[in-house]
């Protein structure tokens, strides 16, 4: 019995329980994640972090959330009323919907009803996640546009460009997985990893996915849309109160979703890791699957925090170069290579797993080597016309401090000696010789 | 036929209700203390620029380029997914076709790359 | 992983590579051409592109010749790619026509001597009138992206005339349109007009594509298939609602008529013909018209022949409208390129008469007309590109006054071409009109032919007006000069005029060839 058939006869009450359960899970994960992030980053920076509210400070994010609700809700005069109002909703809804297709546990029985720990299992499951993440961009762009203010607009533009750039790499990395599972349904993908997780089989895909999931969620070191040193807060600069809280919620829910998808696609989802199932068959129980799943997801969430605590923010051009010039070509080559290996394997010559693993290692080494190569100098186009008017005024890079005009020394006869000497020495120290 | 999608609708409704409730309730829960400066666009304390749209309404053209490239590659992805699902059934024929397809997109990609379409300054 | 081996393979469709080789060659060359643009240094690009394009035409022509000359079991034509593409006698005729006309246009496009550095700008997006815009007008390096664009457009046209289902047709329509939209905006002189032309063509073209697609959807709802043959079958055993059929047909045909610039869907034609770089105008006027009418012929003949009693009246009206609009508005034009544009609207009306005849004579007549008209048009635009002053081409009619006194050869050639457009005997235009009208009379469209004859007479007036202006007016003192063309433009004009003459004097071989067979589906 496939998961889809199992889920098809879920009664309405069970569906509602699952919906509420997933919703609560995501909200709790968000509250937990904010706190966890602050604590871990604090530990990395040798400071205590939040430790006042609740046991060990674990209720800090809840308190923050409640506090946000009682803050003034500001809508700038220049803002577009309805779009400004709806943008947080648009960015929040897809974040939750995307999680619906993730299998969070195996087959269980709830109040005597056989079912799987998953809300829906669609034949296009993976596409639902990608589609939702695309729709989420609308929330960001519209919020930036509707604010009627330059910083949010720039942040929104950057964010949109960033998300769509990394969505390409993310989508391409999933293609390899689909080739092995013969299905885009998330539960089928988990089941196809019964023998061997795809992280081993498709390591380049995994690496690309992990990098692009960080880019896709606008997290450090790719958090350029909200680079506070340049753009204040990015697209949500003008938002306050619960509207701001919704953006925050959506961002963290998205993080949870992409982490959950990562464990589903590459780490075997809810399946028991490291052959522990052979030690005690209870590990393979459907409810235990939930534990494994959450553990794997938390691993990825920890990676998010780890990255944030470790890496400085990238420059925008570096970031786009990584996306378009490194991840995309590697993905494309890798997909063709995987397709080739599968076609050869089906003609029945050699072991595909060995081959793929070797290929992955070779490719990884090649990528590392290519990163060492110096960037080729782009030839200057002699016919290029300098564009002005559209860009921003930029001082020339070879700016020299202009020579100060020779000053006429005031000829004052009965001036005391001291101050004159001071002036002269000052000028000398300015380099004006 | 669309019955499997029903739970998605429930999820949509729940998330939507929650979000709508939040944005609607926010002005009523919080305090309201009118202040002209508060309602201006936030520009780190300096006078807000009269035309808030950046660069007199003109965006850097690189964003448009990125958007178009995204569409190009997104469509490539759209074709790669069905191929991936039935890659084994298509056999060698499918392999040749997909290699040709990726190569064709690769030509356009090489052109954009060489002409600096992927560079941000 | 063992279960994989048991998966049964999906059978790939049969592909007759020899039949579609010309299209594959053109498309492949377009891709190589893009790579040339990417990897060759700037100074080598023009030469490389010209050589590549010439080789492409030779290769595609050879492949086509080999296939058509084989005369095997597939003599009357085949369908391939699971019926998506048909290669039959009309398609082969149209492919040859497209390749020949495309070759002529490429010659005009590749010319660098008439306008130093070619007729194209490097940065089409620069705002007209700015410093950058003036700077790029003086550059003499040729911008060569136009070669791959032309090849892509040409390949799209070749697929368009061979498409045997509506979806393939739609994709081909987009492949042929998108490069054209872009190329319209590349004129080196009069940037604002050129950009306006590109935007106008793009917006209206997008509308037309949407119409086409909507019609396609409705027809799919009617027939349950996008294949032309299946639609034809569905119209035979008809217990379904005709609303879907005729709404779908109407929308589909609007999309097609737009591309063929048949009035009243011609609104873009004058502006685009005037604003686009003249070599591109030649390419559009000749090749797009061939492709569009090739598509119209196939759709009408294959899919809707059985229902022709219902729709023929409407297209009858459209043909009349087109001829009247073209002839009457052409009279009022003061710009040569706009005048030729209205003339092309009138010609589209004549071609539509042949297309709705739905007989063998109608088919062969229309095909012949397309061949003849295409060559004449390319030569006309070649000549127009030669009459220049300091601002570029001098297209205002008053500037053409007394041109015969300055350049008798050019005026003579242009006179001959205008007479061909007017349909005077001993030119291909006459033969073309004759065969189309004869076919129409045979099929009972005599009243339409009368209207067409009146329209031809009116149109002849504005062609003659230009001739009179060239021969019997005093040249203006600050009038334009006639540039001595380089080899490419000379060849294009000479061949165009020569074919116009040959087809007028000895049309039988082309007529036989055009009538060699019908559509296969």
Structural notes for this entry:
The complex is a heterotrimer of chains A (433), B (121) and C (521). A two-stranded antiparallel ribbon of chain A has the order 1-2. The longest helix of chain A is centred in the first third of the chain and has 33 residues, at 12-44. Chain A has one domain. Helices cover 61% and strands 2% of the residues of chain A. Chain A has 15 helices and two strands. The radius of gyration of chain A is 28 Å and the shape is globular. Chain A has helices spanning 3-8, 12-44, 60-69, 81-99, 125-146, 150-181, 186-191, 198-201, 203-216, 228-231, 241-266, 286-310, 316-346, 352-372, 417-429; strands at residues 107-110, 113-116. In chain A, helix 4 (81-99) runs antiparallel to helix 5 (125-146). Chain A is mostly helical and 433 residues long. Chain B is mainly α and 121 residues long. Chain B is built from four helices and no strands. In chain B, helix 3 (61-85) runs antiparallel to helix 4 (87-114). The longest helix of chain B has 28 residues, at 87-114. Chain B is flat and about 70 Å long. Chain C has one domain (13-131, 138-514). Chain C is built from 20 helices and five strands. Chain C has a three-stranded antiparallel beta sheet, with no helix packed on it. In chain C, strands 1-2 form a two-stranded antiparallel sheet. In chain C, a hairpin with a 2-residue loop joins strand 3 and strand 4. In chain C, helix 3 (89-110) runs antiparallel to helix 11.
Report a brief summary of the structure.
Chain A: Pfam families: NADHdh (PF00146). Chain A: One of its GO terms (molecular function) is oxidoreductase activity, acting on NAD(P)H, quinone or similar compound as acceptor. The complex is a heterotrimer of chains A (433), B (121) and C (521). Chain B is an all-alpha fold.
CATH class descriptor of one domain in chain B: Mainly Alpha
What's the N-to-C terminus distance of chain B? Answer: 50 Å
What structural category characterises the helix and strand content of chain A? Answer: mainly alpha
CATH topology (level 3) name of one domain in chain B: Methane Monooxygenase Hydroxylase, Chain G, domain 1
Distance between the termini of chain A: 89 Å
Please compute the radius of gyration of chain B using only Cα atoms. Answer: 25 Å
Portion of residues in helices of chain B?
Answer: 55-70%
Q: Please estimate the helix content of chain A.
A: 55-70%
Strand coverage percent of chain B: under 5%
The total count of strands of chain A amounts to 2
Low-confidence stretches of chain B: none
Total helix count of chain B? 4
> What's the mean pLDDT score of chain B?
81
The total of helices of chain A stands at: 15
Q: How would you sum up the global shape of chain B?
A: flat
**Main sheet specs of chain B:** none
Task: Assign the structural class of chain B, choosing from mainly alpha, mainly beta, alpha/beta, alpha+beta, or little secondary structure.
Answer: mainly alpha
> What is the general shape of chain A?
globular
> Which stretches of chain A are low in confidence, meaning pLDDT under 50 for 5 or more residues running?
419-433
Major sheet attributes of chain A: 2 strands, antiparallel
